[in-house]
Specification:
The chain is of the alpha/beta class. It contains 11 helices and 10 strands. Helices cover 49% and strands 13% of the residues. Bound molecules: adenosine monophosphate.
Length: 282
Amino acid sequence: MAVFSRLICRRAASLRSFCTKSTDSDLHRASSALSSALPVDNSNGKGRNVQWVFLGCPGVGKGTYAARLSTLLGVPHIATGDLVRQELSSRGPLSPQLAEIVNQGQLISDEIIIDLLSKRLENALVKGETGFILDGFPRTVRQAEILEGVTDIDLVINLKLREEALIAKCLGRRICSECQGNYNVACIDIKAEDGNPRMYMPPLLPPPQCESKLITRADDTELVVKERLRVYNEMSRPVEDFYRSRGKLMEFDLPGGIPESWQKLLRALNLDDHEDTRTAAA
Ligand code: AMP
């Protein structure tokens, strides 16, 4: 119980600084929280569950492929964007200011996001879950440095898709307000041009029971998506270099829709003969 109230105080203190730049001591505190939320690992990466990261521009499909791989490999899929949206829907006193940052396509502070992630990892630890697939974290070099300071990342998958497809995918994204399922009403068909092959991505339509409950994310408007892409290039592109220089980055060009991309991804990860591949793809 004492641990629990310490955590709440820590979170409240950090949420107060959500819209300011984190100081070194704020970050030091957040990084210690992250470290204690992770299991002690003496295995040197051998024999433990995977610790992977998905990088890529908004709309590329990190959530889709991270969720499928997490089912396949039996590790939690942790999307920091989902953690932020949960925080917003809790409608705490600071939600309006957090919503303003998110809805303008900006990043929230490293300290806040690390606090939200620590809380999620603590839950995982309590449930006995090990390993993870992170989606949307790290998004700044500072976040990557802090993560590196507290645990080993085995692999970073950098998903890539042409920009016109990214924008269309964000604008077509719909979420079921009840089951939180992710769908897409866009039919993307980009002609072959300049040596690039034709790209066809059919819509991913919801089942009938979700049709009347679909909502659009407030940050999926054209203006905000363009700003999120700009912020990605400025703040998150350097994270690709961070992992590239450590030999951990796997570049992955999505060839099109889910069926062909999923099979190609499994081959790239040497998972195509994994016993549960068929179930995860269903
Ligand atoms: P996403 O669902 O990944 O597109 O994230 C939605 C929004 O949550 C982002 O546009 C940011 O405002 C915020 N967010 C998610 N992850 C991070 C992160 N690692 N660092 C800072 N802000 C984040």
